[in-house]
């Protein structure tokens, strides 16, 4: 029996729960209007289990024609799987409850729905862990959509697909992807192909994905699939070869029930993420963070608005002290700040800092940002900023705490609870977390030996930045992507000029913003290293205190390779005596003329 979906609440009617600051406000089964384009609005349904928290995996399920969405949610097993794992389910349904239309029209619906859900419509999904499963007559539509839009999914399950025609294969193999020099048939996609029988078209689809996924030629039979093709050894720190090709022969109706959903989640979806990277995204596999030793902490922390700290919020953060950390010796530590809409449990893997920490014996502290209870419009979606956690480097407001106050709490907590080398504490972050990192240099300079903001060229983009405070020297390495559409223009823009010239004047460096040609593809820079274009600003003694990097092909993203560069080429060079603020570069005291007022 079907269930009537609830109407989504008004965005400005929501209230914050300071005791459960990161818990989803919505719970249950909801109706959603997806505006595909002017004049065309399609339906979808959301299922959000009880006690779900931010940024859980989101499974987009295409139901067969003629099914009631709620009936399919329950009978397919996805409701039970969501309840067990805390997943979000997005049900894609045919127009007016009938049959699916043309694959082109339905692909437009899928693309727009995925975009709308990425805007966080009164709950908080995370686009890097979007997965899709399609059943029966919907399977060929998702097959088509995912072949031409692979960046949209971390993995797909095609239950009842008829395969790939020769004409379509030829078209795809001749098509260049959004990244120059990379074909569409070279973009990885973890996939489970479920067919009723072996056909030429399904064999062609399997071969297509085996090529894209760098699969071993010989597969193996498993308890969950008739054949599993694993990827060969290869890949890079930025893009893992981690896409499986699974094949099963059965009728789609045999795939109904929680047992099958659990197999799909455990063996295809779980652990695979498609992060932002270049225009094709970046596929990577990461083991569960808790199995690797991450620990979650929480505390009631004052927001900074009320005197005496009565405006507390239950804040959360994660600490990763990998096995390579010698517990008997003080270890270096990196504060790592996620981007807007992210969370402290995902940034270590998304950035690649977890791997860098394992390789170098670093303690990571990864907090979650503040939630601002303000209605906001994102495209056609009316939502609330509380589902897009971001860092507040400005003063606290009534329902928006100061994250500099949170940082003060975390800094003291870290040095009291871990064996940390206080001369080697650093900060980095991406997007909003990059702004927070700029804020670390501007407002808490005495805490950090060096900082590295990524994908950010403002201290605070939403509010007027507070003036920087006087303090010790903080070396800064900043990185922007040359294909970043969120903050376009690299360091060539006016906001970047303002920030760069401030630090150049404060530290009396040898160059300023106008000394270089930013976004010139290396035309006037200090040096180039692969995709990285470097711009150096030095003291009179030749010590680089401001190091800017523009990265070819990178979108609004953070790459593991740049985090490794930040550690190897920047953080390891600097230490700071926190007792007096003296900065050392490779053991040598750094001195500059008195900072300008």
Q: Mean pLDDT, as a whole number? A: 95
Count of DSSP H/I helices:
13
Count of strand segments: 27
Structural class: alpha/beta
> What is the CATH level 1 assignment of the largest domain?
Alpha Beta
- Radius of gyration from the alpha-carbon trace, in angstroms: 25 Å
| CATH homologous superfamily heading of the largest domain | Alpha/Beta hydrolase fold, catalytic domain
What are the segments in which pLDDT stays under 50 over at least 5 consecutive residues? none
Spatial strand order of the main sheet:
1-2-3-5-4-6-7-8-10-9
How many domains, as an integer?
Answer: 2
* Through-space gap between termini: 71 Å
Named CATH architecture of the largest domain:
3-Layer(aba) Sandwich
What is the strand content? 25-35%
CATH topology of the largest domain: the name is Rossmann fold
How would you describe what is shown here?
- The chain is 23% helix and 25% strand.
- It starts with 5 loop residues before the first strand and ends in an 8-residue tail after the last strand.
- A ten-stranded mixed sheet has the order 1-2-3-5-4-6-7-8-10-9, with helices on both faces.
- It has 13 helices and 27 strands.
- With 597 residues, it is α/β, with parallel strands linked by helices.
- The longest helix has 16 residues.
- It folds into two domains: 258 residues, Alpha/Beta hydrolase fold, catalytic domain (Rossmann fold); 301 residues, Alpha/Beta hydrolase fold, catalytic domain (Rossmann fold).
- Helix 3 crosses helix 4.
- The model has no long low-confidence stretch (mean pLDDT 95).
- A hairpin with a 6-residue loop joins strand 11 and strand 12.
- It is globular.
